[in-house]
Amino acid sequence: MDFNDTPEEAAFRKEVRAWLEQNTEPKNPDEATDESSDSVTEDDVKVAKAWQKKKADAGWACMRWPKEFGGRGATSIQQVIWNQEEGKRKTPSDIFGITHGMCGPTVMTHGTDEQRKQWIPGMLTGENVWCQLFSEPAAGSDLAGLRMTAVRDGDDWVVNGQKIWTTGAQIADWGILVVRSDPNVPKHKGLTYFVINMHAPGVEVRPIHQINGGRAFNEVFFTDVRIPDAHRLDDVGNGWRVALTTLMNERASIGGGGGGAAMKDLIELAKRIEIDGRRAIDDSAVKERLADFMVRARGLRYTGLRSLTALSHGKTPGPEASMGKLVGAVLGQDMAEFGVELQGMAGGAYDPTSSEDGGAWQARFLGFPGLRIAGGTDEVLRNIIAERVLGLPPEIRVDKTVPFKDIPTGA
Amino acid sequence: MDFNDTPEEAAFRKEVRAWLEQNTEPKNPDEATDESSDSVTEDDVKVAKAWQKKKADAGWACMRWPKEFGGRGATSIQQVIWNQEEGKRKTPSDIFGITHGMCGPTVMTHGTDEQRKQWIPGMLTGENVWCQLFSEPAAGSDLAGLRMTAVRDGDDWVVNGQKIWTTGAQIADWGILVVRSDPNVPKHKGLTYFVINMHAPGVEVRPIHQINGGRAFNEVFFTDVRIPDAHRLDDVGNGWRVALTTLMNERASIGGGGGGAAMKDLIELAKRIEIDGRRAIDDSAVKERLADFMVRARGLRYTGLRSLTALSHGKTPGPEASMGKLVGAVLGQDMAEFGVELQGMAGGAYDPTSSEDGGAWQARFLGFPGLRIAGGTDEVLRNIIAERVLGLPPEIRVDKTVPFKDIPTGA
Amino acid sequence: MNFDFTDDQKMLKETAASFLHEHAPLAHCRAILESDESYSARLWKQIAELGWQATAIPEEYGAAGFGRLELAMLAEEVGRALAPIPFVSSVYLATEALLLAGSDAQKKRWLPKLASGDAIGAFALAERPGQNGYTGVTAALDGGSLSGVKVPVVDGDIADFVVVAAVAGDGPTLALVELPSPGATVTRLESFDPSRSMARIEFSGVPAEPLGAVGQGRALAGRLLDRAAVLLAFEQVGAATRALEITKQYTLERFAFGRPIGSFQAVKHCLADRWCDIEIGRSNCYYGAWALEHDAPELGAAACLSRIGASEALDRMATDMIQLHGGVGFTWEFDCHLFYRRAKLLSTMLGTTASWKHKLVERVSAVEEAA
Amino acid sequence: MNFDFTDDQKMLKETAASFLHEHAPLAHCRAILESDESYSARLWKQIAELGWQATAIPEEYGAAGFGRLELAMLAEEVGRALAPIPFVSSVYLATEALLLAGSDAQKKRWLPKLASGDAIGAFALAERPGQNGYTGVTAALDGGSLSGVKVPVVDGDIADFVVVAAVAGDGPTLALVELPSPGATVTRLESFDPSRSMARIEFSGVPAEPLGAVGQGRALAGRLLDRAAVLLAFEQVGAATRALEITKQYTLERFAFGRPIGSFQAVKHCLADRWCDIEIGRSNCYYGAWALEHDAPELGAAACLSRIGASEALDRMATDMIQLHGGVGFTWEFDCHLFYRRAKLLSTMLGTTASWKHKLVERVSAVEEAA
Asked: The domain spanning residue C145 has which CATH number?
């Protein structure tokens, strides 16, 4: 049991470091991490695409992808080592997370050779940014309840409807899309999966105004948008199966939240704030709260290390990702709330001039409710853990066998 | 808004007090309340029956019952005043709670005139103690899933099976009993309700050994016990409806737990215990825990006063009883656990010579898990509040319309 | 035993509810939140016409001469409506401060204006993050002149006068300061709940007079906070009840997996727990109202119980409100964040729940009056 | 990166699991609990034959010379089995105390016997309810003679020697006392978990020698508790995992309303939360094991993290175990109370969770090593 690289890992890390040191600046460690996930500018996109191109040219892009798709067939642990090292350097904001984490693998798994050739290289070189078009206003936790329609028309499909919670839709060139192609069969059977050109006529992207002021998500409206049948992934009616491939990767990539940097800040805050003339951190109730946060934050971190070890041994990590998301998001909200409360009567101010850490705690307190919902609500994650980890039975379902159009909607 | 009696209530209270002062001794206020609800001795039963007789002779027994049944048609608030005043006096342990609170009202509501004449007077005068035979090993929260059978045989019914969690079965003369008379119809429709003579051949009572060492509950086994059809309450197949009458009263009578006396003891304990040379009560984390308990305990107490006020105004109190049971039992367990933890490294001792308060906190900590289950688990109570108070929809049910014998049991 | 409000008091509450339903829907709170306005002057004026600000002011100052029980009923409705008005600052704090400690002259000068809504008062205690009471106050009152910085002062940007926690030569002393005043610089601050405004106020030798006995500021502020805590707790219970109703309705209408999400135990049990919190909070508030109305010795503990119960009920309900709404709960357009913001503003503005818990145990343990 | 146990270590764990499965089913714990026996002498002897008590004792003392990682693996299985043996007292505490601070002579005298299971050691710190550490210790060590009362001493009634937290002229000092000894009166106490015994020990001028440097008792006891906390945390995680498995199985087999109760969200979500607690606890334990094995400077914080995570995981799981079993969970015949009792014994015996939380923040905040 140790925290060191194996000799092979150490050698690889050295190679990575050498390249990064030549091509990037080190990150300022005091720089605050921006957790508000606000929207990126056009310039950000250009810079990020150029950085991706640079990595691709040097053979560092999408390392785990097979060589035939431009990757280097790297191991998972190598990818992690790359991420760790890249994380220490000053690099453009990552706009390809969904492209590489979800869209690429889905196209590789379910696409034809032609489709792969058409789309994979542009992902790798950063030419194209992709987005994921799944959730709908009436289909969130119940994703398979989606209603957006696709109707066959000659060599095309015509799609109509609305998607929501689409990260990066405003900068995306392509999207992966699940729609209902047959409302007369049970819900999971009537779905079909497409790749859609986000610049096609009839696609309209509107940012969603979040409660924390951010606009990281979008609504996307589709009006008679035509998709060539050649852009369909897998068979008609097989959309749910394809979507599962995509989703398997999503929750892992949303990950923890919570811990890390904020923990350090919270301890610093508790040292700075005075309660009745004593440092807050010397108050036993404050200590107990902080300790509770630390145990959860560290527990998540060490769970991550256990997963890394599994990766390093060539194993597939278990369902820790669901736990990381569930525990991490609640932890983040708890810590943010405590950061606000430590400020006492001043907690309700949210002003860069008067609030501690420039209002960062209030900002986090407004942001974390979203993280408890996005990528699977607490409730959905508990179901997943109960069913997939513990093997408890699924909910009684009233909607699995009836035709989709007959499922009660309350409308 | 005040805590005083109305003039009428004050007059009544005076009358009650006068009688009690003539017939009882005052209670020693420092005497510990026994929350372990252990079993009563034969002597206790004799004394309790004599006290009940004395009250009945003086017209104080079952005051709310109609005059025709021997009561005095008193108001609910009068009954409460009686209880308050009786509670201040030294009186025998109450063994008639179920008799008067559940069995009497059920017989009055669903019995024939003859049945009422046969059984009500003996309840009132304390001649007979009754018990309630509802729960079964496979039918707890799902009471209507009970399996004990009744088969018609001439003028009798022959019952076989087992009941469980029966308080007072070992001292009871009569019992109220729900059994399955028809397994071929849906579960709620195949039940029939009887009055059973607990001294009949084939009735065997076995005390249940609880985790806290107590034996307040019993298992009752029935082997070919014959019940005359004349002892059936209401129609064949109508047992569920009759049982609901009984249950309506149960949860109210189990009530709070938690707060009261233990709160005072816990504060005293926190004053006595030293943490690092300081009184525990001066520790801010201890303060926050105690305050949390106080808010819940007082909240329950004042909710009770609101109910009393409703009674006093002649209204029916709302669903506060479910809340009292839910919040009170959890509170009691939390307080007990904290009482154990305040004792630090000595918390795991449970010895009259070395534990604080003679081990009372450890005893409570072993007892409260039962109170969170008896009379409706936390989960059942949350369902009740969600459905009856908030109007949320019931669970999806797979067992309501199929014949009872076809309901999955896992066996 | 009459642990309830009278029919007249309940009638007042219902009337207030209908008025606010019509004139202060949540859209009105949102409008102020999204605008540059600090508060709804229109609503403030309307409720002044109904005499709400005057509720607990004696008749001799031209007011209604009702009592705190009536005020508690109104507070619950103001809370339900998330009314964007300085009710806490002006009515529970500034008015109560004058009633508690004001000289005849001070009362005569300000109470009629407070009663009519023509003046808005505020209470300024905190000077820096972390404060929950008088400890840490450094603003100095010296010979009729006040110097120091108060931040944040809720409603400080719209106040006509401020009651300031200060320290004089003889010890902690409350000071009364009129605004605007030469030497007083008021800067509006961003609020976590922009439907309620706050300010930083810098006093540089501003004319000020003591409110109440010199040297008694800490005790007076304590009593003032207790009184305000009870009334504010009714606001919190009102807001929490509204949030529960809205959330419940949403879970009945929102379908997933072919059934209303309100039929899932995770949702049902969460709402059942929140209902219990609210009822526990409400019952403690009733006790607080009783103690406040009778100025009973139990008020010290009762204020803590009301405050803690109500703050926790609303904080938790507002958090679960977003969670149970799912994605839309995180959008600006849905009303969840109005409750989430207001909840945190209210649960911190008179001191955090933790600080009231400390007070509760200190008080109860001091008087040996425990359970 | 290798944040895991080796295959050999895991193999040891599996072997231990099969052994305990066969020789220490829960019925064995129950048998001791219901009997007058203080512990299972049979099981203690059996595991001695397997060398478990010797795991971390160096070879020079006739022992296995494994390390703490192996011991942690065994601890988890001992916890799973709720084994009714003095493993904590003798192995994590008394043995570690000797390894940490014993003189050569002391080591030679006791370690071989501890290794073979022929001697049982115990650690005596607390003197009165409320203690969670050295503060409050008054037992006096004076010229080779010990006087004072220790209560409770876990396994004190079966110990052949006790490490006693005492105060000498030069300050806090650990003392080593052989039992029985003239002047030492051992009285067995009722235990909350009668499958683990405890005693009151009165020392009246009992012969005793210092263990470790005179005046260093507080620091040594602190280090000792840290080491024991990590190992005990593995026991707690083991017990919690077992409780979760049993409870899960019950909810699959118990039907209500025509379906297994494990299909209700209230049950599923509760168990999901408990699983998360246990995994959080387990991961912190891994960190503790790493720090313990390497005697790393991080051990102080790591011990706290392991202890808190594991104590909370087991305390909560044991409570929910009864609740999810419903009525039968409250009966003597079901095993739930074995876990409920053991959980509370373990989460208090090295000091409460709260006391370890205080320690954690003090340590982390002292070294500025935070997140």
From this structure: 2.40.110.10
Would you call B21 a catalytic residue per the annotation?
no
Give the other-Cβ count within 10 Å of C27's Cβ: 9
| Residues of A taking part in catalysis | 250
* Catalytic residue, candidates B25, B250, B341, B387: B250
Strand B191-197 and strand B232-233: pairing? antiparallel
D269 touches chain C (CB under 8 A): yes
Instruction: Tell me the per-residue pLDDT of D48-58, one tens digit each, with 9 for 90 and over.
Output: 999 999 999 99
The answer to whether the CB atoms of A291 and D272 lie below 8 A apart is no
Query: In angstroms, what CA-CA distances link A390 with B45, D238, D252?
Result: 49, 16, 11
Q: Contacts of residue A281 in chain D, CB cutoff 8 Å?
A: 361, 365
Asked if D266 and C269 come within 8 Å (Cβ–Cβ), the reply is yes
**pTM confidence score:** 0.96
Q: Do A309 and D1 touch (CB under 8 A)?
A: yes
- pLDDT, residue A38, reads 59
Beta-carbon count within 10 A of D22 CB: 8
Mean predicted lDDT score pLDDT of chain A: 91
Query: The domain B255-376 belongs to what CATH superfamily?
Result: Butyryl-CoA Dehydrogenase, subunit A, domain 3 (1.20.140.10)
Q: Amino acid letter at D90?
A: S
- Structurally, at CATH architecture level, domain A7-95 sits in Orthogonal Bundle (1.10)
Cis peptide before A228 (omega within 30 of 0): no
Please indicate if any CB of chain D lies within 8 Å of the CB of A334: no
d(CA A409, CA A183): 14
Report the pLDDT value the prediction gives residue B297, as an integer from 0 to 100: 96
Task: Please tell me if residue D135 touches chain C, with a CB cutoff of 8 Å.
Answer: no
pLDDT tens-place values along chain D, 371 residues long: 788 999 999 999 999 999 999 999 999 999 999 999 999 999 999 999 999 999 999 999 977 778 999 999 999 999 999 999 999 999 999 999 999 999 999 999 999 999 999 999 999 999 999 999 999 999 999 989 999 999 999 999 999 999 999 999 999 999 999 999 999 999 999 999 999 999 999 999 999 999 999 999 999 999 999 999 999 999 999 999 999 999 999 999 999 999 999 999 999 999 999 999 999 999 999 999 999 999 999 999 999 999 999 999 999 999 999 999 999 999 999 999 999 999 999 999 999 999 999 999 999 988 754 44
CA distance linking residue D216 with residue B401, whole number of Å: 74
Sheet strands (E) in D235-306: 255-256, 259-260
Tell whether C328 is within 8 A of chain A (Cβ): yes
Please tell me if residue D131 touches chain B, with a CB cutoff of 8 Å.
yes
> D266 and C264: CB-CB below 8 Å?
no
> Domain A130-242 belongs to what architecture?
Beta Barrel (2.40)
A211: tokens are 């409660």
Same domain, D264 and D345: yes
Strand partners, C185: C202
Chain-centroid distance, C-alpha D145: 29
Contacts of D131 in chain B (CB under 8 A): 344-346
